[in-house]
Amino acid sequence: MSEILTTRQLEFLRSIDTPTVCNLIEIVAPHRRGFGYTTRHLHCPFPDLPPIVGFAKTAKISAKDAPPGPATSYLNRRLDYLDYVASEPQPSISVIEDIDGEHVGHGAFWGEVQSNVHKALGVLGVVTNGSVRDIPMIAKGFQMLAGSIGPSHAFVRIEEFGTPVHVHGMDVTSGDLVHADQHGAVVVPIDKVEEMMKALEALTAREAAIIEAALDPEMTLEKLKAAIRG
Predict the structure, then answer these.
(1) Omega within 30 of 0 (cis) for the link into 91
(2) How far apart (Å, rounded) are the C-alpha atoms in residues 214 and 107?
């Protein structure tokens, strides 16, 4: 990752929701209009939490069947994974792909323990096509966007980490900048953030003018069309 996110840019991204981020990306990087964000519904148990912005820590998990190798092999991989999660860049967002195919979500990697462990390592939340559990006991302030909610962890384990993942239509590479809230998640092009900041004022003004015209007691179709034309 060659680009660096400044504190000012980070605060800007935290101040807007994910749909607005997508709108701004459409303006400054039109080729990104049709990809780079989640395209299917994700369960969000904590819709009132503010947007999270962080660098992707990626992993692939499986849960349907028991692991074929010795338990020590899995444990060592899991400990190595924690080294990866704790590494720079920070803050981070966990993006985990469940690779169990038609059985995706069979077992939850995320619950009370993992949310607390990851939060302690600088992770702000998770975006996964897999399942989550222990909703009332999740670490305070830890955001979750998940393909499903279920009761068991089954045989869940990390198969690999730090590699590209695909979660509900969104392709993510380790270190990508991700923005997420109750609506979903999007990969943010770091080299376009400054342009996004400049584009926000015009976008906000244009939307406000359209809404004002729509709410005007003396609204006419022609006035509304004029506002939309800008």
Answers:
(1) yes
(2) 47
